[in-house]
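LOG
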Amino acid sequence: MSLKSASLRSGIAIVAAGSALALSACGAGQISQTANQVPAVDGGAANAEDNNITLRDVTVQPKTDDHGGAVAFALSNIDPTNTERQLQRISVDGQEVKVDGNKDLKPQCQIVGNNEKAIEAMGANDVHTNSSASESAKADPNGESRINCVSYVHTSFDGTPTPGTAVNVTFTLDNGEVSMKAPVAASVPEAGQTYRDEEGVLKDAYSN
């Protein structure tokens, strides 16, 4: 083998090694970035320090043509001492949210909040007894399956959070606060309400 050939092969080996190192560094960077990313979820979630109060599916809804700004959530009282609590206040980035409805949180019960139209669409009464939830408690004694009654409230506020971002939401109860970062939902039009024209621009199906 000639020196020229050996030199060429050596050069190829060095380039290959360099490429491998570059790919390795790139891959490491991707892993690091992925590790810091938060997976997509339906909404924010948090527990009180004693885990007796839980919040699930917390989502901030910006104002739309159908409803004003609102906060959707499921607040549960799973205190084993059967202590009744009361929801006193909700705020989004410090701005107070109006809550209409029964805010008493009885033991093993839940308050579900949403905009008024969404609550009406659920066909929800002020209090709805959920007997199937208590039946499933035996299978999952540590989860919200212990809930056996649900009440519904309407929420509203005048804020204009940006869809796709996350904001600070604080729930104040008679015994303390529970805070979290909650996603701001994007407005999704109903099927058939919009279409894309030949240029791919989204149009209102009922506009002229």
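LOG (cont.) second protein
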Amino acid sequence: MRTRTPALAALFLAVSTVAAQQPAGLEFQPFASAAGRYKIIFPGPVKTETTEVKTPAGPRTLTFDSVTLANDVRLMVTYVDPPEDVAKQPPGPRLDKVRDASKGADGRVVTDKEVTVGAEKYPGRDVLVEKPLYAVRNRVVIAGPRLYQVLVQGPKEFVTSRDADRFLDAFEVTK
């Protein structure tokens, strides 16, 4: 019986550590962005920020709607209307560029899967990237000229959890 006690203690510690890394009891609430023309669910009050992105065709506004939770978990939707010449490019190369930017110099792409989103079957890509300090899941969607990114960032245990799935799967482009 003595040999089981340390093994059980180690198992309890491992399970407790994983559970402690995930925000407990997330309660999602519907969120709709009229300006962004999308809806989703977020687990808390949404913070909206904008930044200017410089392009050869002139500046573009990138909008971030996000919620930050404990343990460095962040759920976010971003959108931008790219210049006309970029918007006319086929979806594949545009999605590749976003994947590569998500990966950065220190990341590793773990999964990269083509998807379609909504009844309109907008082209998209689901990407899981591992970085030294965190992981990122990014669902990139091209709806007309607009580029959306639906992101979950944090410990891999949360980024690959059912709560992360619920968030990503709830994204819908609206009119």
